[in-house]
Known about the structure:
It is built from five helices and eight strands, in the order H-H-H-E-E-E-E-H-H-E-E-E-E. By secondary structure, the protein is of the alpha+beta class. The protein has a domain at 31-115. The chain has a two-stranded antiparallel ribbon with strand order 1-4. The protein has a two-stranded antiparallel sheet with strand order 2-3. Strands 5-8 form a two-stranded antiparallel ribbon.
Amino acid sequence: MYVGDSHPYVQAVNQLAQLWVDRVREDLSKMEYLTRCIKEGLRLHCPVPFVQRKITKELKIDDVTFPAGTSFTIHIYNLHHNPRVWNEPMKYDPDRFCAANIKTKDSFAFVPFSAGPRYRIELDKDHTVKRKIAGVMQAENGIKIKLHKREHSKSLI
């Protein structure tokens, strides 16, 4: 990311890539079967097998009450391979994600990258990065970044 912000050539390539991405994004929305194939691949081989979350307020599930501050581990891999959620869960079947089948699924049945707010990373342009020679190249004074909360998007399914 830093290189892209500091070298004009890379900036030019990034601009061209963005034009291409905008065009491809337009075309990708028309490629329904490809989208289903990608989602089914992510379901079978989820890149984030589990996540941990800490609740901020008391939560009651059935007859059990969990106090604020309780941590939960959510096993996404197990969810994506649960036969109560997915018929023949080990089988590759992109048609699971066709419109008719998705209507029958809970919106959290497929969460390949977890769920919740997303953030956009931006370099702090007011910070100058200085190189430090060491066994591994590193920034002498760190690389400052800013996180921006993304707008909520549609369900991942």
